[in-house]
TrEMBL record:
It is an enzyme of class 3 (hydrolase). The active site is at residues 356, 407, 416. It holds the Pfam family Glyco_hydro_9. Residues 1-429 form the Glycoside hydrolase family domain. SUPFAM superfamilies: Six-hairpin glycosidases (SSF48208). The lineage of its organism: Eukaryota, Viridiplantae, Streptophyta, Embryophyta, Tracheophyta. GO terms for biological process: cellulose catabolic process. Keywords: Carbohydrate metabolism, Cellulose degradation, Glycosidase, Hydrolase, Polysaccharide degradation. GO terms for molecular function: cellulase activity. It catalyses: Endohydrolysis of (1->4)-beta-D-glucosidic linkages in cellulose, lichenin and cereal beta-D-glucans. Belongs to the glycosyl hydrolase 9 (cellulase E) family. The keyword Hydrolase applies. Signal peptide: none annotated. This is Endoglucanase.
């Protein structure tokens, strides 16, 4: 994507005697903000994708490893000062008031950190999960880097657990309503412990999960905010052959599947006429990609143990059925839908052309070398012309529940791509590429 150039090279936090370098990482969506909570989740999902489906990635595996490392290198910086965990870089109000290329940014790049007095257990534990999951990936390719990730994951998890609290309270004005934590931080603590258990095999983390799992509410959710369904799927496999009772996790994972299966009597999600899974809120395709990922992973576990799920009412869900559901969502996203539109930019004959993404919608630095100021970009936001720069591979928020899509920059709930829509799709696509039938 050679129309993108360097940006935010001055991102730092002034902390005498030396400044903390916060260059790198990912902007969460179509803005120029670095929100570390969803960024860490996206990194965890990229790592889990490689752990489960890396063997199907072929030459793309190298790019997946690069994408993970781009996240983890930044997260190491964000946790480099003991007792500090950085939550975000940028002033969201100033940023959202401008339509500017990241290369031109002149809004404040304020860095926000949490401490023992102003904690953020959900953020810190999710970063620990990302570092621990990535350490598993890198163990095979770069042992010293893997060890560094795991050591930091342990330290950040201990910080998250020892100084408990939500960043809604510590940084509420700056993180809400953008990435407010609605489900509490207990799920992230157990999620982080589960990844550390997988990475270390230490009984300490198993004991921790046993003592804390009762604090996690099972909403049947999975995404940057709620981890409960992911916890149950991950621990179902992890504890499959252990002496620890894995039954509660597999029962909850089964319940999650039954809440999504369209023919199940306990289905609690909606489906569009064209078959797309729907949950309330914006950026709906985040649910379709994250749930598809869990369905594929859990189908693999069920197949290994020769099991199927009883959703009652004579509805049995086999591993093959779970794969069918995941496949239907991926096919819908890629163009098998009533609009015959791919919701992945640059893929297929028809795809979103006016996505809510600053860099994509403004002329590139190659085309327009002069600075484009905060409000000068408004013309490009308002125009009906297609975006001049193709953000290849980005998946947008998707259509409405009636399968229609307006292709409007202003309609950000549907037209904005996000890292956490794309990240779970990486492993899913790798699987279906290798299992076309």
């Amino acid at each position: 994507m050679n129309w993108r150039k360097d940006s935010a090279l001055q991102d730092l936090y002034i902390l005498p005697p030396s400044n903390v370098d916060l260059v790198g990482g990912y902007y969460d969506a179509g803005d120029n903000m670095k929100f570390n909570f969803p960024m860490a989740f996206s990194t965890t999902m990229l790592a889990w994708s490689v752990i489960e489906f890396g063997k199907f990635m072929g030459p793309e595996l190298k790019h997946s490893l690069d994408a993970i490392r781009w996240g983890t290198d930044y997260l190491l910086k964000a946790t480099s000062i003991p007792g500090f965990v950085f939550a975000q870089v940028g002033d969201p109000y100033a940023d959202h008031n401008c339509w500017e290329r990241p290369e031109d940014m002149d809004t404040p790049r304020t860095a926000f950190a949490v401490t023992k007095d102003y904690p953020a257990s959900e953020l810190s534990a999710e970063i620990a999960a990302a570092l621990a999951a990535s350490s598993i990936v890198y163990r095979k390719y770069h042992l010293s880097y893997s060890s560094r990730l795991l050591k930091r994951a342990t330290m950040v998890f201990d910080f998250a657990d020892k100084y408990r609290g939500s960043y809604n309270d510590s940084l509420g004005h700056w993180v809400c309503p953008f990435y407010c934590d609605f489900s509490g931080y207990q799920d992230e603590l157990v999620w982080g412990a589960a990844w550390l258990l997988k990475a270390t095999k230490l009984p300490y983390y198993l004991d921790y999960i046993a003592k804390n799992i009762h604090n996690v509410k099972n909403y049947g959710e999975f995404g940057w905010d709620s981890k409960d369904a992911g916890i149950n799927v991950l621990l179902s496999k992890l504890l499959m052959n252990s002496s620890f009772n894995s039954k509660p996790f597999s029962l909850n994972a089964d319940k999650f599947v039954c809440s999504v299966l369209p023919e199940s009597p306990s289905v609690s999600v909606s489906y569009s006429p064209g078959g797309l899974l729907f949950k309330p809120g914006g950026s709906n395709l985040q649910h379709a990609t994250a749930f598809s990922f869990l369905f594929l992973v859990y189908a693999g576990y069920l197949k290994k143990t020769n099991q199927q799920i009883d959703c009652s009412g004579n509805v049995l869900a086999s591993p093959t059925r779970l794969k069918q559901i995941a496949r239907s969502q991926v096919d819908y996203i890629l163009g098998s839908n009533p609009e015959n539109m791919s919701y992945m930019v640059g893929y297929g004959g028809k795809y979103p052309e006016r996505i809510h993404h600053r860099a994509s919608s403004l002329p590139s630095v190659d085309e327009h070398r002069g600075h484009i100021g905060c409000k000068e970009g408004s013309f490009y936001f308002q125009t009906q012309n297609p975006n001049p720069n193709l953000l290849s591979g980005a998946v947008v928020g998707g259509p409405d529940i009636k399968d229609s899509y307006a292709d409007s920059r202003a309609d950000f709930a549907h037209s904005e791509p996000t890292t956490y829509i794309n990240a779970p799709l990486v492993g899913v696509l790798a699987y279906f590429k290798s299992h076309p039938s």
